[in-house]
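FW: tagging you since you asked about this chain on Friday. Here's the raw sequence from the shared folder, copied in full. Didn't touch anything.
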Amino acid sequence: METQILGNVYYSPKREMLSPTYILLEGIEMTLTMPDGELTAYTDDKGYFEFRVQWQDAEFTLAMKKPALEDIKAVIEISDDINALDWITPRTWKFVPAIAMNQHHFAIGPVIYTPLKDSLDDGVIIKHDNLIMLADDGTFGSFPIGTIANKGAGTMPPYPEIASWFTYIEPQTGSGRLTPSDGEYTVQNIMNNNAANIAESWWRIADRTTGDETGRFMAVNGHYPEKNIFSEKVITIKPNTYYLFSTWVINLMKKPAVDPSFGVIVLNENGEELYNANLGQEIPMRSDAPEWKQIGTVLYSKNNSALTVQFVSMGPAADGNDYAIDDIELFEIELAAYKPVKSVDKPYVKVGDTVTFTITLHNPVKNPFENIWFQDIIQDGLEFVSGTVVVNEIKCPDMNPNVGFTIPLIPGGETMVITFEAKATHEPTVNPVPNKAQVNYDYSPIEGGFSNRFETETNEVFVVIIPKCPECPECPECPECPECPECPECPECPECPICPPCPPCPKPKPCPPCPRPCRCLTCCKKLMLCCPCLYCNRH
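HL: got it, structure written out here
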């Protein structure tokens, strides 16, 4: 006996159910799986499909292949903001066919996915091993293909370990409990037939993970300020390590109302707050399409080996305080190090000469470095020349590197250059004189994310202060030294026996300490350290 299996496929711009605005789709692939085989058909120009098969008292599976968004945009005018499609009805039906006719309708609609990577800097290496273990690794679980829409995760709370202050309800068709009321939540798949949907105040949505009837999400009707919606203690983190915490959230409202009032708090193992953000501000109401938005931040574990992640209600019951959560994740990450570079214009100076130090910090990423603290303590033998600080070619006469100063920010892709002068005042005990700067800054590799404090140092530079011969203050007629013979064993750089004394010096002076290992007098000569009187810079 023959049975007829038919239906239609449509695109619903406003995600409504069989409304006048829906658009029937042509050329959509449909697959019918039977106990004895599989058939394929395509929708016609009216959006209809049909199978005629021999009736069997067995389960059939009818599935729709989702079209590419580009193919839909080729025939339907769709906003550029729309970047994905998902199901408003299940994409798969499982049924035992009736003898005469079996009708099934399939609907897809626009959705916006805004991943965190759009605001995440390059150079962040994510180790994809989710440390969130509760609620099926933060996904809220799944159903088999062909599960009906508006299916709850059970009559009892599916994840009591999340310690939610809110009351769990199971949405059930025909029960009158399709929508969480104030202070309630549910865990379910496609939400397309509750009171808020019918009133056109909530979007009909599918979960973020799969976009069809197999995926589940947590829907919350806000209430109970400062009470937990979801809480988990993660015990597997490493001290002094960076982590990326994120979740996908959606504002259920499609009509103007208050923004959702909920947030996330991350506590260290002593219960101290590491991160606190109002996520509702990040997901304003959209009237064109529902938007699943991934929100997150980078956390630094410091000396902690455990963190507690909490989703917390931040407002009372109100129209608009309605949202859904999916795919909660905590990943270990590695961040690139951005080290400032220091240089000096003259490595050898006499007492009374000045040198110019240059410190360069380049920001190669798109997010800014903010609240930059710069300090460069000048070591013995050199003295900062007041009024010589220049930041990005702007003179800053009141700034002093010894004391330190703050620069507001370095925008993404730009470079900060600081220069200042120092004067050689005397021959120091430590010669050459070492010098390096401290540059600290706030930085989040996520646009709008929680900033962490980064403490860095420049490379070290050296300045040799050439000593002045106390018995020859003017050194008026220092004769040129003849070529010093090579001396392969001269590690201590002894007195140069060939160079004559500078009048009126009674005898040659020892070579001052070499700034680098010196193996012969020729090396000393090249460094201007061969002549007994070096203050005159002649040899």
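FW: The two ends are 114 Å apart (CA to CA).
HL: agreed, and The CA atoms of residues 382 and 424 lie 5 Å apart.
FW: great, closing this out.
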